[in-house]
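Ticket 4471: requesting a sanity check on a complex prediction with nicotinamide-adenine-dinucleotide. Repro inputs:
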Amino acid sequence: MDYKNDIKYRKETLKKLLFNIQKNEDLIVKALFDDFKKPEFEAVLTETNYVISELKTTIKNIDNWAKRVRVFPSLLNFPSTDYIYKEPYGDVLVIAPWNYPFQLALCPVISAVAAGNKVVLKPSELTPNTSSIIAKIVEKSFHINHVEVVQGGIETSEKLLAKRWDYIFFTGSVQVGKIVAKAAAEHLTPITLELGGKNPCIIDQTANLKLTAKRIVWGKFINAGQTCIAPDYILIQKNMKINFITYLIEEIIQAYGKKIKDSPDYARIINSKNWVRLTDMMATEKVIFGGESDDNDFYISPTLIDEPELESAVMKEEIFGPLLPILVYESENDIDAIISKYEKPLAFYVFSENDSFIEKMISRYSFGGGCINDTVAHFSNKRLPFGGVGHSGMGAYHGKLSFDIFSHHKAIVKKANWLDLPMRYAPYKDKLKAIKRLLDWI
Ligand code: NAD
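Returned structure tokens:
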């Protein structure tokens, strides 16, 4: 078991993981349903299939990604050949959240393994069915000294964080992200933090309102709004608000029917704590659509909230649920006053046909990533880096980048011996002019 040096071994274990996931796909989908009624379609699209696709891409590319890369040498070192070696960090800790509990736990594990690391995964305690099937699948696919799943809650997480790691990959809330960063600082351990934030969705007067409503309803209410890159709030031109709300209501009914509670395509809130948090949030607001809730199965219907105060709970913290506040603006100053109130978001969405407005919005604000005339879709392109900035996170992953973040990039200059230019060696007398000329030239 030489996962550090033997790429063939890494590939074999990843193939085993692929086999075990494919074999157990129905059970994984069932576990996700049992945890919070994640609809089958969403479970396959955003969890099992996503991981399967990540595995296939990684298995196909691992030899290439692991190769040392030759880079153009510096003329100062002439004659030399220069390389970047990809070296595994060593012991990696992955801590995962509950909202996409299969995908967000396993994708970092796959890349950490591909890059030659030993991994400990702590999945979320809030999705016990999914965490347990992850543990079984990992146990079947890897030697316990290679990849291990440690189940448990905050205390387990704290114990793990107290140990020394060579890399920590954390996905979760900003608040816990800070705890992870502090623990990592103790040993100067490098980290990736995939966090959250309040993601704005700006709609100007040129936007195609019907299509905009359709795409926002999809991105907001998938997983019952419990998506880190879901639109958090709408900022729309004041005179378009009424029309837009009509379209939003039409699209919600089109997607989930009139009896949303009975729809097989609508998930539940993860637990009582979050259900109470969300129902408290909407209790004091002007609800213009939805607002139904049932604590028997932690149901909250897709809910539209009309122009809440910026100081209200719904506008103060990340919503992370199916409540959609609709705010209005009349000028770009209004947009600025609202967006600048918050920390840099994880995602940012602009709906417009006006290229100069779009470019202005994209370049004026700092955020992790986003879409023009869509929501959430940037997550699915493996060629795009996925991650936050500022309070929404640190570092980015997906595709080859995931392999790279779990590898130390070791720089090597291989000097040739057939020539040894005397210029750099002491005594320096009379060499300064010549070296300055050379430096000017290169
Ligand atoms: P969380 O921060 O509460 O928990 C995440 C993990 O940290 C869990 O495994 C949990 O056991 C552990 N944990 C919780 N409290 C801890 C503590 N005090 N000390 C040590 N470990 C602790 O997050 P969550 O509720 O599972 O997920 C929701 C949050 O995650 C949202 O803010 C969302 O935006 C964010 N998120 C971000 C991404 C992303 O890719 N950027 C993806 C999904 C979720």
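Notes from triage: The longest strand covers residues 80-88. Leaving this open until the requester confirms.
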